[in-house]
Known about the structure:
This protein has 420 residues and is of the alpha+beta class. It has three domains: 2-82, CATH 2.40.50.100; 119-184, no CATH class; 212-418, Chloramphenicol Acetyltransferase (2-Layer Sandwich), CATH 3.30.559. It contains 13 helices and 19 strands. It has helices at residues 84-101, 109-114, 118-124, 129-138, 156-165, 172-182, 198-213, 226-243, 250-263, 307-323, 328-331, 396-411, 414-418, and strands at residues 2-6, 16-22, 29-30, 35-40, 45-49, 54-59, 66-68, 72-78, 216-224, 270-272, 275-277, 284-286, 288-290, 293-295, 298-299, 336-340, 359-363, 367-373, 376-390. The strands form five sheets. Strands 9, 12, 15, 16, 17, 18 and 19 form a seven-stranded mixed beta sheet that branches. Strands 1-8-6-3 form a four-stranded antiparallel beta sheet, with no helix packed on it. The chain has a four-stranded antiparallel beta sheet with strand order 5-4-2-7, with no helix packed on it. Helix 9 (250-263) packs across helix 10 (307-323). The longest helix has 18 residues, at 84-101.
Amino acid sequence: MATEVKVPTLGESVTEATVGAWLKKPGDAVAVDEPIASLETDKVAVDVPSPVAGVMGQHVVSEGDTVNVGAVIAIVEEGGTAAAKPAAAKPAASAAPAAAQAPAAASTPAAAASTPAPAEEGGAVTLSPAVRRLVLEHGLDPSRIKGTGKDGRLTKDDVMAAVAAGTAKADSAAAAPSAAAAAPSGPSRVEERVKMTRLRQTVAKRLKSAQETAALLTTFNDVDMSAVIEARAKYKDLFEKKHGVRLGFMGFFTKAVCMALRDIPAVNAQIEGDEIVYHDYADISVAVSAPNGLVVPVIRNAEEMSVAEIEKTIGDFGKRAKEGALTMEDMKGGTFTISNGGVFGSLMSTPIINPPQSAVLGLHRIEDRPVVRDGQVVVRPMMYLALSYDHRLIDGREAVTFLVAIKNAIEDPTRLLIDL
């Protein structure tokens, strides 16, 4: 019996999505609740599970198509597990007729050598556009890379790890014909046209809207990280042993931000029409890297959390972002954003606010720089801080005071304990 697979409810106010990738091909065996497709919404990727066990039937829509909630996207044939066996054997069986169907190719050994690529083609079906691009750029065989994402899918980190290790290179025999063909034409001038993901389209629209709507301004300061680095080095082992999570810098900065938001409430507010909405809580959005781009899950009521609870929450966000398991609820809301470009090596930036929020704090890399202390030039581990804010709501005095409060708390972490 054929069962229709429909687009599930995607979250509040979300009515459509884009088919990012088919995880099952027609003829593949599927189990109940096994993901068969990945849908891209404005914020996260959502897996569509099979409602029944059986065999994957027809794909009603193609990758890249826009679908509405409740629309039929595929058919699953119930109880047809036996039909999956011929499908599994199909690559091996198709190798024999290939020679008969192409007698002219028999005189060209290179053509025959290049045909055993069904494994790579099968793997490519499950690759996201970003991962597929990396695989092609570095000439890798995706079937030789172990995936650490959800259901064993490859992530960008998996591919970059394979590049660093020098493994998973595609067979040179398969690459030889294309290299030989390209040689006479001189330098490569390959272009690739890839449709923007729904997430990237949404990010582009929101950031452009922020620039056009808000009166954006950025103010800078620097902070001596010596005290925090010393505290982290002294207690990191005990901290991890007790709490089961590593002690990072984000816990300190999030606590410092929460204290500063309480003292400067305008930075934690937002404009709605002709009204200003002030929040007596701190829902901190933290930018996290995911396979399809940057996502911003929210630490709710961060002002009530300990450093350990904050670090655990951020660690969980990072893990689930890598697996593509973040939900719409994880992204909802947020009153202030922290973006840590320093993990990628950024020295300084002017971050753009995440509407309807009114401010974002940018953290950057830590590097030793000469500074003056007590009339002496000394070397200290310094970091630049950048606060971008909506000048319609936040005055320069408030922005500078906010940054100085964070600077003071980080340079003297005791302030975090005694609430200064």
